[in-house]
Hints:
57% helix; four-stranded mixed beta sheet; 4 strands; Glutathione S-transferase Yfyf (Class Pi), Chain A, domain 2; GST_Omega/HSP26
Amino acid sequence: MAASPRMRNALTLFSSTDCVLCHRVRLVLAAKGVSYDLIPVDPQNPPEDLIDLNPYHSVPTLVERELVLYAASVVSEYLDERYPHPPLMPVDPLSRARLRLAMLRLEHDWVPQVQAIQLGNKAQADAGRKRLKELLTASVPLFKAGKFFLNPEMSLADCAMAPIIWRLPALGVALPKDGKAIEDYGSRIFRSAGFARSLTEDERKLNELPV
């Protein structure tokens, strides 16, 4: 089915109200200052429009005129190219490749732990918390290396990482003993106007914005 007239005339995002992958895309949109229509989705009961537009019925799904995109990585990179200012990827191919690899690892290693804690049974949630803390501990040197994650300026990697750090209190995951750099990183990102705009009401309740 073709997109509705409303969707053909506006950038539209189908998004869960508490999902790290959807939050990632909303943070990209907020960083770019792009206006869009947000359609909240219950992943267990997707709306008919989403079922018709996306064969996987998944979120996030972005609709722009006749274009339909899904998968957070695909949507995020499209938005960075479609709205080039401010750029959220470095210019040189080596740095871009490193960031893409880091984001892939976030999707494959970190996000499943968040989902296990949110959606799994007690054993799965406990295992997810243990593994997520291990990942945080191993990544402390990366957070100490600069203001942002693996890049001198805010990038798509931060848009993928920050939603996870934001959820740590609600997930019951404490920072490691030497995790001050992670706390400082989170505070820098969370203080930005773009991050505040990226939050849904459900997500605001998961943590507190720094004063």
